[in-house]
Amino acid sequence: MAIQEDRRRISVRLTVLQVACVVVFAALGISFWLLQIVEHAKYEEMAANNHQRTLALRAPRGVLYDRNGQILVDNRHSFTISIVREHTKDLDRTIRMLSEVAGLDVNNVRTIVARHKAEPSYRPIVVVEDASLAQVAAITARRLDFELPDVVVEEVPTRQYPAEGVAAHLFGYVGEVSDAMVASDDSLKSGDLVGQAGIEKIYNALLMGQDGARVVVVNSLGREISTLEEVAPTEGKRLQLTIDYDVQKAVDDGFKAAHDARLTNAGAAIVLDPNTGEVLAYVSEPAFDPNTFAAGIDRATWASLTTDEQHPLNDRAIQGRYSPGSTFKMAVAMAALEEGIITPDFQVHCAGAANFYGRSFKCWRPGGHGTISLRRAIEQSCDVYFYTVGNLVGIDKINKWATLLGLGVKSGIDLPNEAVGLVPSTQWKQEKMHEKWYAGETISVAIGQGQVSVTPVSMAVYAATLANGGTRVTPHLLKAVDDGRGWKPVPAPAPQSKVELDPGKLQAIRDGLWGVVNGGGTGNRARVEGHDVSGKTGTAQVISNAGRVAAARSGKDLRDNGWFVFFAPRDKPEVAGVVFLEHGVHGPNAARVARHIVSTFFAKKEGRPLPPPPTPADMQFDFSDPYGLGHMPGAPPPEEAVNDTH
Amino acid sequence: MLERRLYYHIDWAMLAGIFALCAIGLAQIFSATGGFTRIYYTQIYGIVFGLFAMAICLSVDYRSLADKSHWIYLGILLLLMYVLFFGAVRGGSRRWIDLGVVNLQPSEFAKASLALVLAKFFGESRRGAITREDLAIAAALAAVPLILIARQPDLGTAVTLIPVVFAIAYVAGMSMRIVGVLALVGVLVAPVAWKFALKDYQRERISTFLDPAQDAKGAGYQQIQARITVGSGGLWGKGFTKGTQGQLRFLPVAHNDFIFSVLAEEQGFAGVLVALGLYLFVILRALEAARLAKDRLGAYLVLGVLASFTFQVIYNVTMSAGLAPVKGLTLPLMSYGGSSMIATLAAFGLILNVRMRRFTN
Q1: Would you place residue A151 in the very low, low, confident or very high pLDDT band (cuts 50, 70, 90)?
Q2: A38 touches chain B (CB under 8 A)
Q3: This model's pTM is above 0.90
Q4: Does residue B293 sit in helix, strand or coil?
Q5: 3-state secondary structure of A401
Q6: Any B CB within 8 A of A1 CB
Q7: For site-directed labelling of B189, which of A13, A115, A335, A361 has its Cα 20 to 30 A away?
C-alpha cells in the first residue's frame, strides 16, 4: 500500500521534472533562436568589427613635373607609428613602452593620444610621422614578441619637395584636412591630406588620389592574421607645370647671391612666356621648407614660421603690395601716347626739379636731364618728364591704361589668395575716401609713388603686355595633366583683356626700355649680348625722407625696394618678367638677377651651357648710385637723392 | 559478471546520444584548439578512460555499490581534504591531484558519490514521507563536500552538489511546503550572501552580468563576446573551423567553458538544436530510467546523478549564450576535461546500471 503510494508519488514528481526539463530546453532553444536568427545581423556585424580592421592605404599625390618633364615634386615612402586602442587593455602601459622603445617623450605621446581620445578606438592615432628606420625596427621586433600588438607601423607616401625651399610658395604644402572642409566637401574624409597652399591647394582635386583599403583579420590581441580584401590606392593625377626648372633655379641662384651679399633675403620674381602667359619661374623669398609640412609639422617649426618677422609663409609674388617706383612710367607714357596727348617726340626740359600746383618736385638727378624726349626720358628715368606728362594725362587715363597693361587688377594666376594692387582714380578716391582727387596727387603717381601699389605678379603681366603688344595674358602654371592614360595638354586660359596698341607708339616705349639696358641707362646690369634685353628699373621708397630720419633708430630695415621689369628680345619677345628685391636698395641689383634669368633662358633655348650663377660680388657694388659708379658699400647715400625713383 | 540477459537491457539509444555528444564536443575541441593538439588527444584519452569507468559502474550491481556508498563517500572526502592541503595549484585554485601523467580532479567524482550516498539514505528510509531530520542529515551530507570544494575555491562545482540533494529529496517526497520555505530562504539569504559570502571578483561577475557594457574590456568582456559568438553564427553557422570568435581568441577558453558558443558559431542554430536535442533526449531517457527503476534506491540514484548533470548543462548553455554570469562550469560530455569526462561517463554508467537491472532481483 505504502509502496504503491510511493510509486505514484515518484511517478508524478518525475513527470513534473520531465516537463520542467522540456520547458527549460525549449526556453534555451528560443533564446538561441532570438540570438542567432532574430538578432543575427547585429551580432554578425559586431563579430566582423571584432576581427576585421580596415586599414586605409594612402594614395600618393600626383607627381609634379616641369615643362621639360623633370620631376619637381615627388613622393617618397615614410613610416608612421600609430597606436590602435581597440584591443588595448592598458593604454598607459602601451604608451610608456612605445616611448621607451622609440625614444620618445612619454608626456608628448600622452598628449597626442589624449587629443584623439574621442575618435573611434579602431582608428590609428599617429604618434610618430616619418619615423626613423631604427624606430621602425625596434617596434617591429617588439610587435613580433607580442609586447606591442596595438602599435602599428604603416608605410605611407609622403610628399617630397625640392630641398632648400625651391619654389616653396608655388608648390605650397599639404596638411591634414580641417573638420570644416570635411563637412563641406563630400569627397574628403577626416585624416585626409589636402593641399593647404599653392599648387597643392588649387589643384588638390587633381592631385589627390583615391585612397585604397586593406581589410585584414586581426585576432583578439589586435595582431593581423591575414588579408581579406585589398583595394589598391589610385595615384593622383600627374601634373606638368609650365615651370622651367633651370629658369627657376636661375632665379633662386640670383636671390641666393643677393642674400649672400647681405643685400636682402626677401623679394619675388616671376618669369613668363609673354605670348601665352605660361609661368616659367616663380619665386617668393624668404621661403620655407614644404617638406616639414609633408611629414606633419611640429609646433616649434610652425611657431618659428608664423612669428618670423619676415613672414616666410607670405607669398610675396601674389600677396605683397609695393610701390612700383619708376617701373610705372611706361604706363604713364602709354596712356599719354594712346590718348594722343603726346607723341614720342614730345620734349620736356628737365632742370632737376619742376613746379606743379605750387610745390616743387625734384628729379632724381640733381643737375637735371636738360631737354629730353620720351625714349631718353625712359632710358634715363627722368622724373620731371613724367611729372609733366602725367599732369597732362590726368589720373583717370593713367588708371585706364595701367589697368589695360595689367596693373591694379588681379592677374588671374592659378594660385590661391592673390591680392590686388591699386592704381588710383578719381572714382576710387571718391568711393574710398569721399574726397575729390587733387591734380597735385597725380604728380607722385606719375613716377610710381603715392597711392599706387602693385603685386609682383601684376608687374610680370605688365611686362608681358608691353612685350606682346597689348594682350593681358593670364599667367598660369598648369601645362598638361596625366590621369594615367597619357598627357593631355591643358589649354591656356583666355587673356584677361586685349587692346590693340599702336605699333609705332609701343615701339617708342620699347626703344626706351632697350636703352635702359643697352644704352647706358639704369638697367645696364641686365644686358645680355645679342638678346636685346629691354627693361626698366624701379627704386621705391619704403618710407618718406622725413620719416626715414625719425625712424632710423627703430632698427627696421628702411632701405628702398628694388624692381626690374623686363622682356627680351625687344622686337619679338620670348620671355618677360619681374624681379623684386625687398630692401634691395636699387633696381639695378634686381637687373643683375634678371640678366642671369634671361641669359639662362636663352642658353637653354639655344642649347648652350647654362651660365654660372651670379656671385655676391656681382651684387654688392651698388649701394646707392644707379650707375654703380663712385659709391662703394658703406659709403653714405648722396644727400641730394630725393624721390629715389630711377 | 555481466550476464547476457543484462546486456540486452542496456539503453543503447541513450548511449548513442552520449557518444554523439562526445563526438560533437571532440570535433569542436579540434576546431577551437587548431587541430590534433595535445588537448585533443587528452580528450580522447578522457573518453576512453571514461568508457572503462562506465563499464565498471555498469557491471557492478548498483545495490552492492550503494551498500558501500558510505565508504566511497568517505574516500572522496579524504581526497578532497588531501587536495585542499596538497593539491596542485592552477589559476589560483587548488583543485587537482597531480598524478604525474594526469591530474585528477576529485570534486568531479564527489557528485556521483553524493548521489550514491543520498540515494542509499533516502532509499532505505522506511518512513513514508521524509522528515526534517532526514532533510537535515541529507543537507549535512551534501554540505561537507560542498564546503571542501568551495574552499579550493571552486564555487561552480560546489554549487552542482545542491541539485543532487534537491532532486532526490523532491522525488523522495519532500513536502511542497518545505520546497516553498527553502525557496523563500534562498531569496532572503541572497543579499546577505552578496554582501558577506561572495568574493569581490564573484560580485563583479554578477554585476557585470546585469550590465556587461559597464566593463566591456574586463569582466563583461567574456559575456559580450559570448553573445557575439553565438549571435554571429546564424542559422547554419560559419562552418567547421571557420568561426572567427573562437578561432581568433576573442572568446577565451573556447575549448572548455565556451565550447557550446563555438558550436553555435560554427554550426549555427541548426547545430545548437541538434546538440540541445541530444542533451534533452539523454536527460529524458535517464528520467525514464528513474521511472522504470526496480526500487526507490535506483530511482533516487538516477535522479541524483542526473540532477547535477542537468543543472550543469543548462547553466553552461545559458552562460555560453551570454545569458548567465560567467562561471567556471564546464559542459558535461562536450567540454575539454579528463576528470569531468570520466566522472560523467561513470555517472551514466550508474544510470545504465539501474535501468539494466530493472528486472533482476
Answers
A1: confident
A2: no
A3: no
A4: coil
A5: helix
A6: no
A7: A13
Taking alpha carbons only, the member of A47, A87, A52 closest to residue A216 is A52
pLDDT of B328 reads 76
Task: Find which of A17, A18, A52, A88 to mutate to test the B interface (most B CBs within 10 Å of its CB).
Answer: A17
If you average pLDDT over residues A256-265, what whole number do you get?
81
Task: Spell out which residues of chain B touch residue A35, defining contact as CB-CB under 8 Å.
Answer: 227, 230-231, 321
pLDDT tens string A425-453: 999 999 988 989 998 899 999 999 888 99
Closest by CA to A330, choosing from A567, A629, A8, is A567
Percentage of the residues of chain A whose pLDDT score is greater than 70: 91
Cis peptide before A456 (omega within 30 of 0): no
CA distances from A644 to A118, A262, A334, A370, A542 (A): 60, 21, 22, 19, 10
Q: Cα–Cα distance between A472 and A470 in angstroms, integer?
A: 6
Strands (E), chain B: 88-90, 93-98, 103-104
What pLDDT does residue B251 have? 76
Task: Say how many residues make up chain B.
Answer: 361
Peptide bond into A495 cis (omega under 30): no
Confirm if B351 and B332 have CB atoms less than 8 A apart. Answer: no
Q: Is B56 on the interface with A (CB under 8 A)?
A: no
Place of cell 605678379: A457
Contacts of B344 (CB under 8 A, 6+ apart): B50, B108, B309, B332, B333
Residue type, B14: M
Residue-level pLDDT at A102: 85
C-alpha cell at B12: 543503447
Three-class DSSP category at A609: coil
Instruction: Give the C-alpha separation, B77 to B69, whole Å.
Output: 12
C-alpha cell at A114: 589624449
